[in-house]
Every structure is written in structure tokens, then in C-alpha cells.
Fold this sequence. Notes:
mainly alpha, 0% strand, globular
Amino acid sequence: MSTSEYATPVFWERQWRMSGIVFVILSIVAYVSYGDQPRVGAPADELIAFYAGHRTRILIAAVFSGIAVLYLLWFAAAIRTTLADAGQDGWGAAATAASAVLGATFLLLMTVAAALAYAIAGSANPTMTAGLNDMAWAGVVLSSFPRAMLTMAAAFGLWRAGMISNALFAVGVGAVVLTFLGGTTWLSGGFWAPDGAYSRFVTPLIGLVWIAVVSRVLLARGPTRAGW
């Protein structure tokens, strides 16, 4: 049997425990690569200029987003095993389910964007392009619910397991409420619209910060099992 560090369970468990931090980094890279998506109801020329004119950037962002989803699922697996060891497997199962739904949602949104950039936006079908662009914004709003569930599972599970303080638990509960409110951003314009600042910046930033914090908590716990 190999004695290399890379063949040990400790090495791999550390990788999974820090996967949340890697997810955050990849998500930021994908966001910067993707650029500023046209708003709901944007005119056809703006949509074509974005999707067809920035095709390479969008497809690169799709690759980074796909890798980020893998790290999100590994992050949830690390939460699940950690909570299972602490007797809180119910919350761990909730984290697994939430991450699966959230990962599928992210892949769907990037599939729409990649399809628009790859072929649809340049096919002289502005109605379809506009409809898919608007659908993507609706998907961002609805993704608030699995994001809130993943945040809740980590906050309540780690708190019940005695791994985070009451203060950090309160921060987690606040993050759950603020993320959940992202699912109500259905005004026709402004801050509380699907393409408004709350949906575009506030809730995604809350989610990324919380994932980084939880990943740091998992890393601080150190390896506890040999099942990796």
C-alpha cells in the first residue's frame, strides 16, 4: 500500500473540508468571467451584443461554474460526514439534499447561458433569446430557497453538535432569513426586482461568506474518520 501523503485519508478529508473555500473562489472567477448579464426585458440588440459578442467569456464561465458545482457537492458531503459523526445526521442529510437541488439549479442556469452564447442568440430569434434571458433571472430568484436550506442545515447542525458558538449560530440564522427573502424579489423594477441589487449581490454574497465560514469551521475540527 502506498505511503504517500496523497494516499492517506487525512489528506483527502482535508481537501473535502476546504472545498467550500474553493467553491467560493471558483464562483467569483466565474462571475467575473461571465460579465454583467442584460436585465429583464432588455432589447434584442443588447442581448445579442452580450451573448454573441461575449461568447468565449460566457463559455469559460460555464466551465468554472461546472467545477464550482462539484466543489459545492463535496462541501455538502463534508458537512454530512461531520454531522453524522456528531449524531446530527438529519441536518447532514438536509445539507446533501439542498446542495443537490442548488447544484442542479446552477447547472441549469449556466446551461441556458451557454446555449444562448453558443448558438441561440445568433440565430435571429430575439423572442426566444429574451425569454430565456428572463427565465434565467427567475431562476436566480428561486435558487434562494435551496440556498437558504443549505445555510440552515449547516447552521443548525453545527450548533446542535456544539461546533459553533451561539453568536455564530445567530449569524447563520440571520443569513437564512436574508437568503430566504431573496425568493420574494418579484417587483417589476428596482432594488427588489429579480435583476435588482438584492438578488444580484446581497444574497449571493451572504451565501459565499457563510460557505467560507463553515468550511473554515470544518477545517478547524481536523480529521475525524477514515472513510474518505
